[in-house]
Known about the structure:
It is a single chain. The protein is built from ten helices and nine strands. By secondary structure, the chain is of the alpha+beta class. It folds into two domains: 3-245, Ferritin (Up-down Bundle); 254-361, Sandwich (Immunoglobulin-like). The strands form two sheets. Strands 1-9-8-4-5 form a five-stranded antiparallel β-sheet. The protein has a four-stranded antiparallel β-sheet with strand order 2-3-7-6. A hairpin with a 3-residue loop joins β6 and β7. The termini are close together. Residues 1-18 form the signal peptide. It comes from Decorospora gaudefroyi.
Amino acid sequence: MRASILSAAALAATLASGAPAGKRDFSPDNTYFPLANGFPNPSSDAILQIQKDGHGTLPNGPLPATLSQEGIINLQLIALNELFEVAFFTELVHNLTNKYEGYDLGYGQEYILDALSAVVAQEQMHLLNANKALEEFKVDPIQPCKYNFPVTDFQSAIALAGTFTDLVLGTLQDVNELFARNQDFDLVRAVSSVIGNEAEQEGLFRLVQKKRPSAQPFLTGSAREFAFTAIQSFMLPNSCPNIDTIPLKTFKPLTVESKDIKRETQNLKFSISKKDAEIYEVEKLRLVLINGQNKPIVESFQNVQMLDDKVVFEAAFPWEEFVMDGLTIAAVAEWAKETDEFAGVEDVAAKTIFGPGIIELS
Length: 362
């Protein structure tokens, strides 16, 4: 079984470094859009082809009469993520189609290409649906950024796809809960269908990595801010035309320093920027671990080291007690007193300063 360890600041770079062969041929100057079919603004004929390639149609039912402010933020985040995913999977299909070095699979190539081509079209439809809803409610649609995906071959690309899809599956739980809390009930069913679609994709990514198709009985929940922060690690600075219209917090980086983490109780090593940490009292910070649908686990810093440019510390990873398989989200949050506790992931996000650090055990 494999373990994947990532931080938001180095979500892609930890998996691999450098650009895949042929990347500049596909995306000169890291510009991915518009695609050949005009996406993200395809014609009516292009949309018909996207639907055929995606093996289904865009929802044609009426939108709700009203949409809350939190509902608007949900759709904006979904659109931002879908644009990033379309860019990633379109380039992966391009590299596989051209059989660049590291992307010639030999036996099975045709099946994988067919599967991923469907993913590209389905992600395009997810974006079109979200941006159309925003426009209906007089909100500017989210525009694409410039991206960098530092993966070098098919296996590193699929490992990265599996990780960000896990985070998406956790974040869409938060999206649905916020829709429900804010009376946006009519959007819950559609997003739930997307959760199922993303889960089917994740099953493929896990099988390709020789993992069990299902990671956990109750998938780890996330919060919108964790996904918003992580997505930005793939975007070139100042390349997103209207990301500033999404009123979500971006956290400071948290790096998981431990490598090759085993499925056992142990101390793990993390680091945060010394400059960013200087304004906080370290003794009032805690590492928080989010796994499954359990209450967040709060751990104290141990063996703190102040180095030239970063603060390195250890914290307990209680795998045995909580069977922490699948996705674990780590965050450094402010902690008032020992009697406090976080009821759920949204409480953690509200107090988080550094994160997310991503740990996957399967």
